[in-house]
Amino acid sequence: MSFNSQSILDSVKKLLGLEFDYTDFDADVTMHINSVFGILQQMGVGPVIAYSITDNTQTWSDFSADIDKLATIKSYIYQKVRLMFDPPATSFGIIAVEKVITEFEFRLSVMGETLAPPSEPFANA
């Protein structure tokens, strides 16, 4: 088995500093990744039907074919998983990661609304 840079699990593990063939934490990392996919779905980013991974065979292109959004999605998922799985040791580090996450959430929400704008709330008034 070799590292697959297109694998969602393998690439997040790499960013977390875990070797792709070290599987002791795969269940933990997978659970956190799937939690973030739920958040992305609520923001209107990604597939309409709930998406989740089970192992390292699911790829980024399985989640989204939109290359423009994928870079932000990958970074967002990594930062969220990092904060849940292996947070920084200091409060300053945690705050810095939280600020990056907040920025990504804003930008991803805008992306989601651009693709599927909310309905006009006063249309029937």
Describe the 3D structure:
With 125 residues, this protein is mainly alpha-helical. The protein has one domain (8-115). The chain contains five helices and no strands. The chain has helices spanning 8-16, 26-42, 60-63, 67-85, 91-115. Helix 2 crosses helix 4 (67-85). The longest helix is centred in the last third of the chain and has 25 residues, at 91-115. It starts with 7 loop residues before the first helix and ends in a 10-residue tail after the last helix. The mean pLDDT is 90.
Secondary-structure blueprint:
Layout: H1 8-16, H2 26-42, H3 60-63, H4 67-85, H5 91-115
Count of helices?
A: 5
Total of domains: 1
Cα Rg? 16 Å
- Outline the biggest β-sheet: none
How would you state the average pLDDT, rounded?
90
Portion in helices: 55-70%
Report the span from N to C terminus: 60 Å
Shape, please?
A: globular
- Secondary structure class reads mainly alpha
SSE string, helix = H, strand = E? HHHHH
Strand content: under 5%
Give a summary of the structure in a few sentences.
The chain has five helices and no strands.
Characteristics of this structure?
single chain, mainly alpha, globular, 125 residues, 5 helices
